[in-house]
Design goal:
It comes from Bowdeniella nasicola. The protein is an alpha/beta fold. The protein has ten helices and ten strands. Helix 2 runs parallel beside helix 3. The termini are far apart.
C-alpha cells in the first residue's frame, strides 16, 4: 500500500499521521519525538490544542529531517475571524512549530458566515509562500462548494470525524469527485470501537490489535487518518498497519457497523 496520498495542489501527504488533541503540554514534546522515531511523518496539531510550542521542541529534538515531516496546524477562530486574527494565529503557530506545511480552518462556524473570508486569508498565506497547502476541517459539501464558487479555490483536504460508527459515505464521495482528500480525526471513535465484537473478531483472525484493524480499515477505504495516543507502545502499534490486509468480507463487515454516531463535537454544534 502507498504510504502517501496525492493532494490536488501537487504535493503529497502521509496517509497516516498522529494527532496532538488532548495531549498534555507536558507530554507533547516526548510524544512528537516518539512518534517520529516510530516512523510517522505527519504531525497533526492546532492552535486550540495549546501544546504547539512543546510540539515544536519535539520536532527539533527528533533528529528527523524537517523536509521529511508534514506538520499541520489549524485556525481556531472563536474570538475573531477577521483577516488580521487569522494572520496573527498563523504567526503564533508558525513561531511555535518552526514551519507549517498544511493549514486548516478548524471549524466553519456557519452562524458567523465568515468562513469564506477566512479561506481567502489562507489563500493569501499560501500565495505568499508562508504555507505549502491549505484545507479545512469539519466542513460540509455545501460549505466546500461555496468556497469554490466564491474564491475559485477548493481545499486540498477536509479533516472530519470518521470511524466505523460514522462513515460519512456521502461526504467521502463528494471529496473523491472533487479531488479532496478525506482525513479522519477520532479515527478510533475515541476508543469506543476497540471493544466492538466485529472489530475484536477480525483482530483475532489477523493476530493484531483492534486499533490496528480500524486504522487499516481507514487506509483501505482510501481515507487518511490521524490517531492519537500518549502511550508509546500504542503509538508504535498504531503505525504498524502495513503488514496485513483486511479481506473484502472483513471490510464489508466493518461497513455494516455504521450508526451515524458522533463521539466528538458535531460541526453544527460549533458556532
Amino acid at each position: 500500500m502507498e504510504h502517501h496520498v496525492a493532494l490536488r495542489d501537487g504535493h503529497r501527504l502521509p496517509i497516516l499521521g498522529f494527532g496532538l488533541y488532548k495531549v498534555p503540554a507536558s507530554q507533547a514534546e516526548d510524544v512528537v519525538t516518539e512518534g517520529l522515531a516510530f516512523g510517522y511523518r505527519l504531525v497533526d496539531s492546532a492552535e486550540f490544542y495549546a501544546n504547539e510550542a512543546q510540539a515544536g521542541r519535539g520536532l527539533a529534538r527528533s533528529g528527523v529531517e524537517r523536509d521529511d515531516i508534514t506538520v499541520t496546524s489549524k485556525f481556531w477562530g472563536e474570538d475573531s475571524q477577521a483577516p488580521e486574527a487569522v494572520r496573527a494565529a498563523f504567526d503564533a503557530s508558525e513561531r511555535a512549530l518552526g514551519r507549517i506545511d498544511l493549514y486548516l480552518i478548524h471549524w466553519p462556524r456557519p452562524s458567523r458566515n465568515q468562513y469564506v473570508d477566512v479561506w481567502r486569508t489562507l489563500i493569501e498565506l499560501r500565495d505568499a509562500g508562508r504555507v505549502r497547502s491549505i484545507g479545512v476541517a469539519n466542513f460540509s459539501a455545501d460549505q466546500i462548494t461555496r468556497l469554490g464558487e466564491e474564491t475559485g479555490e477548493l481545499p486540498v483536504l477536509n479533516q472530519i470525524e470518521l470511524h466505523p460508527y460514522l462513515q460519512q459515505a456521502e461526504l467521502r464521495d463528494f471529496h473523491a469527485e472533487h479531488g479532496i482528500v478525506t482525513q479522519a480525526w477520532s479515527p478510533l471513535g475515541r476508543g469506543h470501537l476497540l471493544s466492538d465484537p466485529t472489530i475484536v473478531a477480525i483482530a483475532g483472525a489477523h493476530g493484531v490489535s483492534p486499533a490496528q484493524v480500524v486504522i487499516r480499515w481507514h487506509l483501505q477505504l482510501g481515507t487518511a487518518a490521524v490517531p492519537k495516543s500518549v502511550n508509546a507502545e500504542r503509538l508504535r502499534s498504531n503505525a504498524d498497519i502495513f503488514s496485513f490486509d483486511l479481506t473484502a468480507a472483513e471490510m464489508a463487515a466493518i461497513g455494516e457497523l455504521e450508526r451515524g454516531q458522533h463521539f466528538g463535537t458535531a460541526p453544527t454544534d460549533r458556532q
